[in-house]
Automatic annotation (TrEMBL):
It comes from Gossypium tomentosum. This is Laccase. It is found in: Secreted, Extracellular space, Apoplast. GO terms for cellular component: apoplast. It is an enzyme of class 1 (oxidoreductase). Residues 1-23 form the signal peptide. SUPFAM superfamilies: Cupredoxins.
Amino acid sequence: MGRPVFLFASSLLLMVAATTVSAATVKNFSVTRLCNRQVITAVNDSLPGPSLRVREGDKLIIHVFNMSPYNMTIHWHGVFQLLSAWADGPEMITQCAIRPGNKFTYKFRIINQEGTLFWHAHSSFLRATVHGAIIIRPRVRHSYPFPTPYREVPIVLGEWWNANVVDVETQALALGVGPNISNAYTINGWPGDLYPCSQNQMYKHRVKQGKTYLLRIINAAVNSHLFYKIANHNMTVVAVDARYTNPYVTDVVVISPGQTVDVLLTANQPVGSYYMTANNYASASGTAVGVPFDPTTSRGVIIYQGASSSTTPLMPVVPAFNDTPTAHKFFTELTSLVGGPHWVPVPLNVDHKMFVTVGMGLDVCPPNVSCLGRPPVGAALSASMNNVSFVSPTSLSLLQAFFFNVGGVYTTDFPANPPVQFDYTNPSINFDPPLLFAPKGTRITKVKFNSTVEMVMQNTAIIGVENHPMHLHGFDFYVLAQGFGNFNPATDTLNYNLVNPQMRNTVSVPVGGWAVIRFVANNPGVWFMHCHFDGHMSIGLSTAFIVENGPTPDTTLPPPPTDLPQC
């Protein structure tokens, strides 16, 4: 990459270049949304932040200057970070936070990846406003495995709070409850004309009739799955999470937090204007605890060249908030483009099998926490995987502790199976006291380099069933199967797709169901796995993998950079 790409932040500065290093400083800025003026932490005085446009094989050098009042890290979501785990970014997993007034340089290559990813803050709820697209094109003289589009358009879906997002999380933890719901959804930073004071705050994209556009859709929302539609238009999915798929025609995209979907949109309708919409898929809304959600709809507009400005745009029929059949159909019918760029066949031999429950629970109310908002009164909302509610270390990151062999930071005894077997998705267990309270701990899994890991993730009905978007850092995985109810190894393994399963870095474990993933642990380091609902990650729905070094220097994690932040 021979040209520098500059990213400036109001609260931090990002500058990317292949060979050039420089620095600049800017400050926080104010924006007006939903009739309110407020200061936000964001990048380049814009929301979303600027798109990072690179090619497969590029080396990136990214200087982050944190001029915000908050501790900060940046995660390059979905980037493999081969032999560069120090640059992955999750706070207290691979690094300590960049403190206000300090800086850190991220260095990594984009290897064997093409498509759409994104970068975002990995501290507190700051991801709500600190995020932007990563657009990875093929190397020069290489082409897409589909017709070259006329234009490429990032579509970043988000959520907006009429509040400081750090305070939203702080209040939830202080009360032992879930975070307040957002006030709006956004499309490329704009809420759209269905919200107060937002008639002129709507994303607009102009198209030429007959042309085909590549929409790079990103769900950067903090706690919401989303449906995305465009009135009277079909879309053809060609990639998810920077992995090429077989073409899949649909009139709706379902996308969970942390996921990306690339679609081809052909402007093949009569000249006019057509609304695009984003609204919530709220899988937990009908559970025993009645989880609240934002029922609103964001909309932008596709405007054909030559359309009259007085024409009222056509509105799509949006899915119902609880339309699980539509969500499940989309999530399960995608398949990989076998033989396409960077495709690797599914490994058939498994070295490390895991069966992991994922779900909510309760915790004993900590000191100075009111715990008035959840049943039973006097308990705080919690979450766990295999009855372990993850706690991040405080004095040293997991990666530092692993690399320098420091004891007392974590243990490698994360259970490969649930300590107690039960009827996982039976609603009658919602408030079964023996199952509600999972112990806290920093218990993780260690695997050998190049071993193949298979994990069944089983949703539970403790507190209530919900679709959980589970993200694995450092790897893509094959999604072998998904289903509802309790996983049955005698029958469900027969339905594994071992030929062309979709590949992801984030999978939505179906509400009241399960998903099976498989990956090759060929990247030494410590890799976070967590729910990409920040409200759930922060209360324990996480774990981590240690992948040991390989036998050669080019399979061994190098030492940390000298400017790695200290706790």
